[in-house]
Amino acid sequence: MAEDSSTVRVAMIGYAFMGAAHSQAWRNVHRFFDLGVTPEMAVVVGRDGVKAAAAAERLGWQSSATDWREVIAREDIDVVDICTPGDTHAEIAIAALEAGKHVLCEKPLANSVEEADAMVAAAVSARAQGARSMVGFSYRRVPAVALMHRMIADGAVGEIRHVRGQYLQDWITDPEFPLVWRLRKEVAGSGALGDIGAHVLDMAQFVTGQQITGVAAQTETFVGRRPLPEGDGALGAATAGSGAQTGEVTVDDAAVLIARTDGGALATFEATRFATGRKNHIVLEVNGSTGSLVFEFEDMNGLRYYDGSAGDRAGFARIDVTEPTHPYIDGWWPPGHGLGYEHTFVNQARDFLEAIATGADPTPSFEDGAAIQRLLAGVERSAAADAAWTAI
Amino acid sequence: MAEDSSTVRVAMIGYAFMGAAHSQAWRNVHRFFDLGVTPEMAVVVGRDGVKAAAAAERLGWQSSATDWREVIAREDIDVVDICTPGDTHAEIAIAALEAGKHVLCEKPLANSVEEADAMVAAAVSARAQGARSMVGFSYRRVPAVALMHRMIADGAVGEIRHVRGQYLQDWITDPEFPLVWRLRKEVAGSGALGDIGAHVLDMAQFVTGQQITGVAAQTETFVGRRPLPEGDGALGAATAGSGAQTGEVTVDDAAVLIARTDGGALATFEATRFATGRKNHIVLEVNGSTGSLVFEFEDMNGLRYYDGSAGDRAGFARIDVTEPTHPYIDGWWPPGHGLGYEHTFVNQARDFLEAIATGADPTPSFEDGAAIQRLLAGVERSAAADAAWTAI
Amino acid sequence: MAEDSSTVRVAMIGYAFMGAAHSQAWRNVHRFFDLGVTPEMAVVVGRDGVKAAAAAERLGWQSSATDWREVIAREDIDVVDICTPGDTHAEIAIAALEAGKHVLCEKPLANSVEEADAMVAAAVSARAQGARSMVGFSYRRVPAVALMHRMIADGAVGEIRHVRGQYLQDWITDPEFPLVWRLRKEVAGSGALGDIGAHVLDMAQFVTGQQITGVAAQTETFVGRRPLPEGDGALGAATAGSGAQTGEVTVDDAAVLIARTDGGALATFEATRFATGRKNHIVLEVNGSTGSLVFEFEDMNGLRYYDGSAGDRAGFARIDVTEPTHPYIDGWWPPGHGLGYEHTFVNQARDFLEAIATGADPTPSFEDGAAIQRLLAGVERSAAADAAWTAI
Amino acid sequence: MAEDSSTVRVAMIGYAFMGAAHSQAWRNVHRFFDLGVTPEMAVVVGRDGVKAAAAAERLGWQSSATDWREVIAREDIDVVDICTPGDTHAEIAIAALEAGKHVLCEKPLANSVEEADAMVAAAVSARAQGARSMVGFSYRRVPAVALMHRMIADGAVGEIRHVRGQYLQDWITDPEFPLVWRLRKEVAGSGALGDIGAHVLDMAQFVTGQQITGVAAQTETFVGRRPLPEGDGALGAATAGSGAQTGEVTVDDAAVLIARTDGGALATFEATRFATGRKNHIVLEVNGSTGSLVFEFEDMNGLRYYDGSAGDRAGFARIDVTEPTHPYIDGWWPPGHGLGYEHTFVNQARDFLEAIATGADPTPSFEDGAAIQRLLAGVERSAAADAAWTAI
Fold first, then answer.
1. Which of A195, A221, A246 is nearest to A85 (CA)?
2. Residue A166: left (phi > 0), alpha (psi -120 to 50), or beta?
3. How far is A314 from chain C (nearest CA, A)?
4. Are C340 and B335 an interchain contact pair (Cβ–Cβ within 8 Å)?
5. For residues D386 and C390, what is the distance between their CA atoms, to the nearest angstrom?
6. pLDDT at position B239, please?
7. Which residues of D touch B151 (CB under 8 A)?
8. Does B31 contact C23 at a Cβ distance shorter than 8 Å?
9. Which of B95, B146, B90, B101 is nearest to B11 (CA)?
10. pLDDT given at position C232
11. What is the overall mean pLDDT for chain B?
């Protein structure tokens, strides 16, 4: 543990896209929020020592290392932040928890339900010893999404009838886009479903406070083979024997599903990387008996609210979610001066650190993450069985 | 037949919401479009003679009648326009076609596949005798929807990957809203599914030129019993024995489904009357390999187009569909002076009359209408079987 | 006068764009609204007999004529509807009023303040004899604009601080677009200012209930000479001597102004035909001490309202102005089934006919029209004097 | 100077809203951009030592100080970043430049043209010695605004006809809002005009590459007296003699103006703090002969472009300005993961540091800032003279 009890020393495993976003959070969170603890960016870990050192320099970590096991064993580390692909989450997280570290793990929690369950078991044990654990469903930390959650809990829409969620991207519509790790099941677990579908499914359950109880789903891989990335030895090995310069895409490009919730709502969801023109298009709409709420990520500082009680002056109102009374905003800028994508990670770090400081268990917990994993597995089972209705 | 070959005399059966919209079309279509034939509003038919006479006066019909069989038998009638609830479509349409009349029939074509098939048979026979038949999927006649169809056919989006359609309303969210005929299966056939879902399903197939090949669906009736409408004897009878002032809602309030098309696309659809704040919210989005198109009825004079070939200047562009080169617009106003809901019926009448004048068979044909009927039946079968995948 | 006191027989002078829009109104207004009187489309008047006869046939008038003086003299005519260019308004309107006819005159009321004043004098005299007069600021009849007026009068925004109005078009950005009559001062009076600026200035005064008391303005003619329209003898004569195939544009292409109102508000206005991409873009925003309202014509069935009393749930709400309690909507379609451009004329005819039926004086009156004329003249004087502040 | 030539040590004067935003920039800029130099947050300066020390701790500065003169005299300081109110800009900036420091000065450059001119003279002298100077018109660094600038320079809209700019806020609509320093002329220089109007005027000139040559303006102070802020001794003194708990608002609440540019365009501008519901609403639209561009800050990651060459498929397209080829984006996140308000300051710091590293002079220069000051002075002169046309 850090010598100063008000400091928590963080080790981050992985330093790619998510690692950069998490670093920005650790670097800045205490500049905006009053927390009981201050993060110290102790060490970043990567397999390639040269690259890891460069990442430490660029992202602002005090040091770098190549062996996460050694880092986890260090006494001066309080927090382990897991930003690697999903196939390594379970091993790292369980080891970290067993070592008594607080663990923040990127989503999806794991690549299988079995892994997720093992992680939950480790989290439960560690929790009893005071180690906090949280899974990084960062979009819960968009102030507008948090406000949506709060308003629904406050009864702003009444009894929920419909939920519709979409997470649409278009970065692999080109068949010449290479076979990166996110397109390989053994690393990524699944494709659009786990990468982005997991987010919108979590958001839906978070804002409604309801759980999905059953699904019927279809998935599709529109482009079955892709060029290998340049210089990717691992992938080359993976396709050894094919003699080709291309490899097989082993995850879904898109998933669509209908669902029911334990609150009696009907829901539809869609996750795809083939929606041309939709860069990072998340839409989540909830219709209740007396009102509705709509969030769109492209307008991430806005939340649309239809208040059915307003009579013939009712309409979908765009709440500019930048008022000091809105979630997280007291730490940020004056009204109208909106946040960006990366701030979700700062807000997430705030919640995680606050939990550490106050000794509370943060959400989403590993149990929440495992529940999403079970849901994703249910979606895949349904899709594999010709969309058969699958209880979650 | 009318004495003047350039005049077609129309008999309209039914004069409620749809009857008013159709009347507006017959009254005005030849004022905006040059057609080979001119409609004459000969007679409106309704069971209640007094009300029918009042409707004739208000809507501009030359006369009224109470027996549609007699009207169909008249030699001076060329066109029969069916605006009644779905349970009467088959009988009227078949009789009219057998009498050699051109028939425009409101959607859904019928309340069952069997009825629809019988209507198709009648249409085929009559067609050989020169009688035209068309089903009233009026939203095809929104200029922006017709442009969407044209652009997709012209390759504006490439190979289609995704279709998502929503038709959301909110007029029965109040549990005290009465049990009107649209909520009774024996009259309406189905609920949101057939009333509005049919529209968006037809629009999706129309704009893509693809057919849905399979579905998994769920439907729901959120409010199971409702007050009887005042003075509705028929309904009173229908609920005799219950001893209550309420009756059972026998149709769906909402339907959600996922689907596949014969062109390899994944699709999602939703139709509901419980989306609070959504008055008549139709959204249809198509994502292709090189572009995307989005239509929203609340912005009915706009069409959003993402042209992937525009490089880093690409974006969803709102085409103001009011240029003379856009579908139907040459008959209307200068650029920027948009149309409203009712104009879809005028445009529909134009297409129907043009088909009569030129001796062509209009679309959507009764076969198209029957195909939608089969699709609706498939949705209902799937919903009844726990969302089992159902081939169409 | 018509024999049947419940019928008013209309003569329409001019049959171009506005004539077509007015004809649509006369043809349909009584099909949607219960009025004390029913319009009869008696005669359309145009200088060219063949064209006038064709217009009568196409637009649904019982007859045509070439001499408006003769028509005005006819006893069977109750209403004179003036749809000609502005240079003829005064002569026709005064003659019609002196003949005891009700007069609906297109805007702007006249091409000069002097003409407008003479028309007011005639209207005042005729009013005493029961002849109604109204000027056709049709955008007041957009339901959303009428609702904006009603809400402001009801205190929905508090004390008005700001008004900003824009009317942007782009139909003459091409320098090869010909020198049509709207670009010639002797016919049109002014350019963008009188044609479209007049609308948005009237709308601003209408919705706020405040009058503009002073302006500073600039106008500009971006393209000074244009090709003569083909076969336009009158124009050919007008440019005789130039020896060229082009003629001088003698009106403004654009006008910008700042203003103050008698209610203490600051205002900005802009009217242009050179806003590339803006087809018929009208925006009117009013900011008050407790709320704001925004209308955009491209979303003509919507009105955006910010209700400052909603605390941190406040936002600009899009009211779908299609509820039966909204202005004019009780005559039209169910919620969510919006209107189009032409319906403003139907609603206008409704108000005019209702005034005739009830013996009330309709608004906007000729006095209102003359006030706008004075405002337009003030804008032109300011622009001619280097934007000098000009009291209205 | 810093010992390591690749490090620049920064002193920031002032630590309120702007100071926090600048600190975030200094803390993070080198984490996202490869620069020839790395900023070191040496010292933050404030009059109150305790508060300054707390600010240093919170914002991440190595130390704090109370005397900016002493700090400027220090050899280890390379950059002076001025974040104080406008009344102190000239004195600090001139002293810093004379001491050979690079100076980044918040906008508006000064509170008077005289001050601004003196600052320019100092900048010119210092420039010859290699000291860089820049004024903080941060909205130029919104990627969409920078893209707008680039596209216009590339001819994307043709010859510019119209510019319209609005900067609307509503934070003082409540008459009970206190008399903060921004409402006092002796500190702030002017009100909405200089605070936010300066931004949109600068943006307009920046994106068009044109200069405003004349204006006619009106300003207004809607609420003339306001409660004194609690515990504001300075203000208490300022109103000594009034014996009241309120003080006089000595700046404008709102300014409206029309303008002409040296490129032949007509322009309108508005800046206000009384637009209820508009939190930080910046709109800038440019209409050219062949296209148009629109920026709205509430959608800061989007830019709307109308490309007139697209024929009847043309429409305002929302470019999602998050592609790596867009300005600044190569340093940030993947497409679709937008930025927020604060990133404009990071991008600004990037440009400033790059200029230092490469020995180039950054823009906007002090000359640019002084030109804006002259423009603001012209607006005030016009407003004081009943909107008389005032050459700039």
1. A195
2. beta
3. 6
4. no
5. 9
6. 45
7. 313
8. yes
9. B101
10. 52
11. 95
How is B325-373 classified by DSSP, letter by letter? TSTTGGGS-STT----TTHHHHHHHHHHHHHHHHTPPPSS-HHHHHHHH
Indicate if ipTM > 0.90: yes
Q: What is the distance between the alpha carbons of residues D357 and D335, in angstroms, rounded to a whole number? A: 29
pLDDT in tens, B272-297: 999 999 999 999 999 999 999 999 99
Chain C CB within 8 Å of residue B320 CB: yes
Give the fold, CATH level 3, of D143-299+301-338+362-391. Dihydrodipicolinate Reductase; domain 2 (3.30.360)
- The minimal CB distance from D274 to the residues C162, C166, C267 is found for C162
Across the interface, do C289 and D278 touch by the CB < 8 Å criterion?
Answer: no
Name residues 92-151 of chain C within 8 A of D (Cβ): none
C-alpha C293/C-alpha A319 separation (Å) is 15
CA distance D138 to chain C (A): 26
Contacts with C389 (C-beta within 8 Å, 6 or more apart), sequence order: C214, C215, C216, C382, D216, D386, D387, D388
For D172, the closest chain C residue by CA position comes to: C289
3-class state of residue C261 by DSSP:
strand
Closest chain A C-alpha to C311 CA, distance in angstroms: 10
Identify from B151, B157, B162 which residue to disrupt to test chain A contact, counting A C-beta atoms within 10 A and taking the largest count. B162
Start-end of CATH 3.30.360.10 domains in chain C: 143-299+301-338+362-391
The lowest-confidence range among A361-375, B1-15, D325-339 is B1-15
User: A264 touching B, CB under 8 A?
Assistant: yes
Which residues of chain A neighbour B166 with C-beta distances below 8 Å? 164
D284 to each of B120, D48, D162, how far by Cα in Å? 57, 39, 10
Return the closest-CA partner of residue A299 out of A143, A155, A112, A121.
A143
C318 in contact with A at a CB cutoff of 8 Å?
yes
Q: Residue B268 is nearest to which of A266, A268, A388, comparing CB atoms?
A: A268
Cβ of A312 within 8 Å of Cβ of C323? The answer is yes
Q: Which of A353, A375, A193 is nearest to A273 (CA)?
A: A193
Residue of A nearest to C326 (CA): A312
Measured CA to CA, the distance from residue D131 to residue D356 in angstroms comes to 8
pLDDT one-digit tens code per residue, B74-104: 999 999 999 999 999 999 999 999 999 999 9
CATH of region C7-139:
3.40.50.720
Whether pLDDT at D29 is above 90? yes
Chains that touch C (3 or more CB pairs under 8 A): A, B, D
For chain A, which residues score pLDDT lower than 50? Answer: 1, 233-242
Q: Which fold has domain B7-138?
A: Rossmann fold (3.40.50)
Residue B237 pLDDT exceeds 50: no
In D, minimum Cα distance to B323 occurs at D312
Query: In this structure, what token pair is assigned to residue D317?
Result: 């397209």
CB atoms within 10 A of CB B225: 16
Rounded mean pLDDT of D4-26?
A: 94
Q: Does D315 touch chain B (CB under 8 A)?
A: yes
Contacts for B91 with CB less than 8 Å, ≥ 6 apart: none
- pLDDT tens, C253-296? 999 999 999 999 999 999 999 999 999 999 999 999 999 999 99
The residues, ordered by sequence, that sit 6+ positions from D74 with a Cβ below 8 Å of its Cβ are D11
Any CB–CB contact under 8 A between D304 and chain B? yes
**Cβ separation of B279 and C322 shorter than 8 Å?**
yes
In the chain, the amino acid numbered A2 is A
**Distance in angstroms (rounded) separating the CA atoms of residues D321 and D142:** 10
Coil, helix or strand at residue A137: coil
CB pair distance less than 8 Å for A220 and B266 = yes
Condensed to tens digits (0 to 9), the pLDDT of residues C53-90 reads 999 999 999 999 999 999 999 999 999 999 999 999 99
pTM, two decimal places: 0.96
